[in-house]
Batch of 3 targets.
Target 1
Amino acid sequence: MRQGSKTLVAALVALLLAFGLAACGGDDDSDTTTTETAQEQNADGKGSAGANGDGGSDDGRAPGGQDESTPGEPAGSFKPKQHDDSGGGSEQFRVKGGDNSVQEFGEEASEGEFEAAAVALHNFLDARADGHWAAACEYLAGDITESLEKLAEQAKQIEATGCPTLLGKLTNPAAKQDLKKEARRANVGSLRVEGDRSFVIYRGLEGTILALPMKEEDGEWKVAGLAGTPLN
């Protein structure tokens, strides 16, 4: 088995350890103001159209006043945001003398695949950050949602069923601000593909380079993990 495939399997296994954690590459500065965040977005060019105005308030409620702790928001009510990704391929993320198994995994995807996978990633991050759990589950790969449901069956203390409810219950409310920041700043640079397995590589908080498994199901790209793995 190729090293990249091993990394993919490890990332999927790590799904069960990802619940309740802040976004990878987390920002510990909880006092960052809205103005400072907007300035950082404009400075690094990673902001999205409407990200500050449409991304939900910071009082724990999603757009329209929906409380993030109640996963009853229908998937159809989620409005995808526009994001601008820099692209450029995985070469820019190689680490001299480091483990580049993800950066060298398979081949660089076509432009169409890259754009479709990037949209799926952004939509998942945005939906999760805004508390649209049903929409977030729509962008998750089938085996991930199945893992969520199996986890609930095995963990008797979790009194919830179905991906939206589980995702809402298992996401740490304390991570809300970091999830919103990660969703705003995520900047996809590469999609590496080998068969039906792939990794999207993107910049997260504080310049952290992250890799997240992706999967194509019935012609649509899905997110195959809940948290990106740092590569730098």
Note: The domain at 3-15+45-50+70-230 is CATH 3.10.450 (Nuclear Transport Factor 2; Chain: A,).
Target 2
Amino acid sequence: MKFKNLSLLFFSIIILLLLIEIILRTTGSEPRKINNFTLNEPLTNTPDDVLGWSPKVGHHKFNPWSQDGKTTYLTIQEDKSRFTGGNNINKKIVFIGGSVTLGWAVSDHETFTSIIQNKTNNYKVLNYGAGGYGGYQSLLWLEKIFKNNNEIKLVIYGYIPHHEVRNVAAGSWMYLLSYFSTRGFVKVPYASIDKNNNLIKNKPIEYINLPFGDKSALIAKLEKRIMKLKSYSREKKKFEISKAIINEMVKISEKNNSKFKLLILENLTDSKLKKYSKFVKENNISMINCRAPQGEGYYVKGDGHPSYLAHQKIANCIYEKVEILNSK
């Protein structure tokens, strides 16, 4: 009798789980997936114990992103900066940030950093943007950059709102990294703060992969829920964490006799713009707003990142607003 009851309970649980699986799939949920499209792309990142990943040195060729698109080329130099052209001048301007700063989906000469380099003969423009980086990885990257460079006169951090999510390794961001893992995204470091809003640096973590998560929508759902719960407390403080990261960027820049500017590269909501405007004013931080324009022609079809035309607009805006670039 006891065995019968256990068997009945077991099969009831199995049936219940199957029903949940069916319901999840009929409502759009799927097992964990990897973006197979990126398997046709060159691998442009390598694992890094501190940064999670870093740009892969070499010349990378990308097929057109759409039927009417064109082949693009991404060149990562030995110091892991993107090629911008220009002469090897001692005085340097360093750009850090994510894929918009890097210039994802446009060729080397089409990035706003290359366009700026063509406009100035007084400074060497170094593009240390990296695909997928948020503010925290950019800060860690900047620490390495200063160890290997001198005569850096200005650091410009290209900020987009999604960096706040990346900074704290939010569950949703961890899922996307797992989805695009064929681009070399595996682990990601994250930041948190103590009760005094001091920055806490945390080592890279990776997305949880439960057994059969790639076969079951239910298990994939559990993976997402676990990652969301683990990052919940950090996500609630993401704006405060972003401010702590930017303050650290300012400190390390000043320590190395460099100036710092916060560069806004995407539209901010009115409330977020007010928050950042108040923050930079209170902390005497220079901020420039050169967001990528929206609309037809300003994004790469089939990808969504800013096009060459958008990069031209961004470059012109930066050149006008950064005094040392256009001073005689």
Note: The chain has one domain: 36-326.
Target 3
Amino acid sequence: MKISDTKLFICAIAIFALAGCSQESSSPADTTSHQQSEASAITDAMEEMSSESDSMDEQVDAKVEPSIYEVAVASARRPDNDKGRDVNRKPAEIMEFFGITSGQRVVDMASGPGYYTRIISEIVGPEGTVVAQNPGDAPFVNDKFKAMLDTQYADYSNVELTYDPVEDMTLPDNSVDAMFLFLVIHHWHFSEDDGETIPAVSATRYANIIRMLKPGGFFGVIEHLAAEGMSREASAGIHRIPRETAVADVTSAGLILDGESDLLADHADDISSYWKEDGTPRGTTTRIVHLYRKPAEQAAP
């Protein structure tokens, strides 16, 4: 029984009770007048209560309706291994923070086996597209890996594969709604040749990212956090990056930091040590979650 049904039932009982009491304690004339007055008041109260109850029912129904992000994460097409990592990655909350919507064109850079690619595919739907990028020159991107991706995405008609390095990607100017790079920029912020400045190849990558993004489009980053003030060389050595270094590098091509979240903060994490060696369980490091946006008025350089 819904809330409104229960309350109306109670009101009906109250009407009969009041009518009975009035008949026992009043004269016929007084009883008739009194009953009419009470009946009118109770009818008004029932109508108001019914309206309020319907409103409460709607609110309850709205609260239990899953979001597009929760639906995507719950998809039966996702493998159990991926779902087992959700508790530490919080993918529904993360995708909601970034604001991915149906129909968008999204690039998942360094997508690997496709943990996020599959989720994004569900969110953007058949009218959208996900470009799953992996650099063809990476050691793990071999024929076996490519065959695996071909098989697993056979049921995903909106997923496209590319093995071009980010700096060489040739998607048209101003054609992409969003681009993601998760747990990778700690490989981008240091090189022995460039020392304590942004590596030249990374500057080229960021310039190409902003070229491909639509005006107003965004670049989403998740990365293991290093202590502020740590050098590029030292933080790269522990596979982390200081927040200030990440912001400086990503904004170097003209992107603007437009939002950040502490969804993946873990204050017990030792951000000055290599997370693989200090016993930190996988997926429990403190990670920066940044949303960088291409200015709406800025065309491709």
Note: Residues 28-64 form the longest helix (37 residues).
